[in-house]
Amino acid sequence: MPSFVEARADTFPRGAGGVDDTLERAAAHFAAGADGIFVPGAVDPGTVKELADGIDAPLNVVAGPGAPPASRPPPA
C-alpha cells in the first residue's frame, strides 16, 4: 500500500520563523523524502499564498483563531 509522508514545520506558532525559514525547512524535508508539508499557525491569507507559491508539493495549514472564515476568497 502506498504511503504519504507529511513533514511538519513549526515556524509560525511561536514566532520561530517566517516564510523564508519555512521554505528552507520544506526544501530540506522534501530532500529527505517528505511528500507534503504541514505548517500549523500560518493563518494570514497572504502568508499562506506565499507558502503555496513557494512549495511545489501539498501544503496543509490549520484554520483556527486569527484565520479568516472559509468563505473568504483567497488573495489574488
Describe this structure as you would to a colleague.
The protein has 76 residues and is an alpha/beta fold. The chain contains 2 helices and 3 strands. Strands 1-2-3 form a 3-stranded parallel β-sheet, with helices on one face. Strand 2, helix 2 and strand 3 form a beta-alpha-beta unit.
Write a brief caption for the model.
30% of the residues lie in helices and 11% in strands.
Q: Using only CA atoms, what is the Rg?
A: 13 Å
Mean pLDDT: 88
Instruction: Please give the largest β-sheet.
Output: 3 strands, parallel
Oligomerization status of the protein chains: single chain
| N- to C-terminal distance | 38 Å
Order of strands, main sheet, comes to 1-2-3
Residue share in β-strands: 5-15%
Helix proportion of residues, in percent? 25-40%
| Topology pattern, helix = H, strand = E | EHEHE
User: What is the number of helices?
Assistant: 2
Characterize the overall form: globular
Could you name the ranges where pLDDT drops below 50 across 5 or more consecutive residues?
none
Q: What is the structural class?
A: alpha/beta
Tell me the number of strands: 3
Write the layout of secondary structure elements.
Elements (H helix, E strand, L loop, with lengths): L5 E3 L10 H13 L4 E3 L6 H10 L4 E2 L16
Parallel strand pairs: 1-2, 2-3
List the defining traits of the structure above.
single chain, 76 residues, alpha/beta, three-stranded parallel β-sheet, 2 helices, 3 strands
